[in-house]
Amino acid sequence: MNPTASPVSLTRYLIEEQREGRIGPNLRLLIEVVARACKSISIQVGKGALGGVLGDAGSGGEASINVQGEAQKKLDVLSNEILLEANAWGGHLAALASEEMDHCVAIPDEYPRGKYLLLFDPLDGSSNIDVNISVGTIFSVLRCPEDVETVGDEHFLQPGTAQVAAGYCTYGPSTMLVLTIGNGTHAFTLDREIGSFVMTTRGMRIPEETREFAVNMSNQRFWEEPMQQYVGDLLAGKEGPRGKDFNMRWVASMVADVHRILTRGGIFSYPLDSKCAPKGGKLRLMYEANPMAFLVEQAGGAASTGRQRMLDVRPTGLHQRVPVFLGSKNEVEAAVRYHAEHDAQARAVA
Ligand code: AHM
Ligand code: MG
Question: Which positions bind Mg(2+) 1 (predicted)?
Answer without folding.
Answer: 99, 121, 123
